[in-house]
Design brief:
Elements (H helix, E strand, L loop, with lengths): L1 E5 L8 E5 L9 E11 L1 H8 L8 E2 L3 E9 L11 E5 L8 E5 L4 E2 L6 H21 L7 E4 L5 H12 L3 E6 L2 H9 L4 E4 L5 H8 L5 E6 L6 H5 L2 E9 L13 H5 L4 E3 L3 H4 L3 H17 L6 E6 L3 H9 L6 E5 L1
The structure holds NADP nicotinamide-adenine-dinucleotide phosphate.
The site of NADP nicotinamide-adenine-dinucleotide phosphate (NAP) has 30 residues, from helix 1, helix 2, helix 3 and helix 10.
Length: about 325
């Protein structure tokens, strides 16, 4: 089968399309014939070696396709089921082995593209807005990189929970996208000071929560946007990792809470995974939450997909058609 393999950490060029043996499912595993793979920023961190991943590996952490074989002891899915998953490495490939307990059977009306566009970023937006800091009506929140994959979904979910949303993005087109998705205010943070915007947005009192996936470039100033006892939710590092800080800083900035969550801990049990995935898939099927597939490239063009994502040239979801 064809698979995009990484033998050394480095730039997009280290990803190579190779022929590798098709695997056989072991106990508790299902073999999927993938139709679509989702591209996510975590794929870039893994390729760069920022998130240590044993070499060599097949890139990609999200896919949708058909179950073509199962190992012993599998009860969650059957051969022929249409399924999707997130957070298991190896999805830039024609076939993937996935623990059956991590698969979600797709409801009628959800095609593979929509599923692969929704699973990882949708469940992330869901846990951030519903579990890490469960937004309440009237809360004021900041969503950075609001026109991105997670960002677009997070803006919409925050609005559904009744929060007021201040959004940031890197171009005027992206700012317009964030507004169209329901953000109460959106600014271009490469031109405007987002701390000032946050103060204005909250009548000087500060925000209840900042959802920051940009990391190094925004972290310090994001802390300055918060109200006393506000929540700093650092969930990514698109601009680079945040250097260590002293806990005393959280005291000085107003008894702040800081968390650095990751999806795996919010879909740890099968029950939580199925609840989050089915909720999000229902919303995207009904249109309550809109998914914007900003780019779709063939598997062989995985390096180009990474180049565009890393260069801030994408909006919404990036997919690889297999
Ligand atoms: N912790 C978790 O569970 C979890 C799960 C999923 C994703 N994430 C994180 O969420 C973030 C978004 O992921 P995504 O896959 O949806 O990507 P994305 O938001 O579609 O793309 C990243 C965006 O970050 C912004 N950005 C700002 N500075 C950047 C820089 N120096 N280099 C590159 N991008 C920069 C860009 O938007 P602008 O041009 O508008 O600034 C860019 O489009 C990532 O940090 C990812 O690691 C975390």
């Amino acid at each position: 089968m064809r698979a995009v393999r990484v033998h050394d950490y480095g730039g997009p060029e280290v990803m190579r399309l190779e022929d590798v043996p098709r695997p056989e499912p072991g106990e508790g595993q299902a073999l999927l014939r993938l139709a679509v793979s989702g591209v996510n920023f975590i794929d870039i961190y893994q390729r760069l070696g920022q998130y240590k991943t044993p070499l060599p590996f097949t890139a990609g952490n999200e896919g949708a396709g058909e179950v073509v074989a199962i190992g012993s002891g599998v009860s969650e899915v059957r051969v022929g089921d249409r399924v999707a998953y997130a957070n298991i490495i190896g999805s830039y490939a024609e076939y993937a082995l996935v623990p059956a307990s991590r698969l979600v059977v797709l409801p009628e009306g959800v095609d593979y593209r929509l599923a692969a566009a929704t699973m990882l970023q949708g469940m992330t937006a869901h846990y951030l807005s519903h579990s890490t800091y469960p937004l309440k009506p009237g809360d004021a929140c900041l969503v950075h990189a609001a026109a991105g994959g997670v960002g677009q979904l997070l803006v919409q979910m925050a609005k559904h929970r009744g929060a007021r949303v201040l959004a940031t993005a890197g171009t005027e087109e992206k700012v317009a996208l964030a507004r169209a998705l329901g953000a109460d205010e959106a600014i271009n943070y490469t031109k405007q000071d987002f701390v000032e915007a946050a103060k204005r947005f909250s009548d000087g009192t500060g925000l209840q929560v900042v959802y920051d996936s940009v990391g190094r470039d925004t972290f310090d100033r994001s802390l300055d946007c918060l109200a006393a006892r506000g929540y700093m939710v650092l969930f990514g590092q698109a601009s680079g990792p945040v250097p260590p800080i002293s806990p005393q800083l959280l005291n000085a900035k107003g008894s702040l809470f800081l968390t650095r969550p990751t999806l795996g801990n919010y879909v740890a049990s099968r029950q939580e995974l199925v609840w989050r995935a089915s909720t999000v898939l229902e919303w995207v099927t009904s249109g309550a939450v809109k998914v914007d597939i900003g780019a779709e490239l063939p598997l062989a063009e995985a390096p180009e997909a990474h180049r565009r994502l890393a260069a801030r040239q994408t909006t919404g979801k990036v997919l690889l058609a297999i």
